[in-house]
C-alpha cells in the first residue's frame, strides 16, 4: 500500500491548486482500471462527472454512480474500481485547511453523498478553467456546505470483519444475482444458520436478507451503469426477481426510487 505525496497528482501537468490548501485534480479513467489500495495525506471528495466507480474501504464497498460522490478522509485505506469510463473530478483537502475551517471533526469517516444539482454545478465550475482565487474559494466552501446536506448510504454494502461472516459475504458478492440460502452458506463457512444470521446483524447492522438485497440492487445499478439500455424486464429476470413490480419494489427499498426514476437522474 502506498501513501501519495502532497499530492502527487496536483503536481502533474494540467492540475490546479487553490493556493489555500485545496487541490483540484481532473482525470479520465477507462472501464476496468483499478486503483489498488492506497491512502493520501489529504482528505478528498471524489466525483465521477460521468461513469461509475466502486470504492472499497475497510468499512465496506461503496458504489458511486454519477449522482453520487464519495468523501474519503486523510490516511484512509481505499481502492477504486472503474466500472464504466469515468471523468473523475477530485478535490483534495489539506488536513490543516479542514482544521482552519473547523470541519475535520465532522468528516472523520468515509461516506457517499447524493450529489444535488447545486453540488454538481459547483464541482464542474471549479474545473471550468476560470482561475479567479476569490471565486474558487467561494465555490470550495459552497461545495463543503452542500456536502454536509447530502449524506446518503443507499449504495453502500457494509463488509463484515468476522472471518466466517466475511467468507459468506464474499460468496454472495461473487455472484449477487444467485439465490443464496443462509443454511447453505452457513454450512460452507462452518457455522450454523442461526449464528450466521446473528453475525450479519451485528457486523453489518442489516439482516442477512436485507444485506443480500442491497448487494443485488448494487449489482443492478452496476449493470445499468454499463448498459443503460438494458430492458428492466430482462434485468429483473437476471437478478432473480419474479416480476418487474417485485424488482421495482426492492430497488425502491434500497435507493428510494424505481429503476426508471433512478436512471432518469443520470
TrEMBL record:
Keywords: DNA-binding, Repressor, Transcription, Transcription regulation
Keyword Mitochondrion tagged: no
Lineage top rank: taxon: Bacteria
Example GO molecular function: DNA-binding transcription factor activity
Domain HTH araC/xylS-type: 166-265
Name the UniProt record assigns to this protein: Transcriptional regulator, AraC family
Organism: Bradyrhizobium lablabi
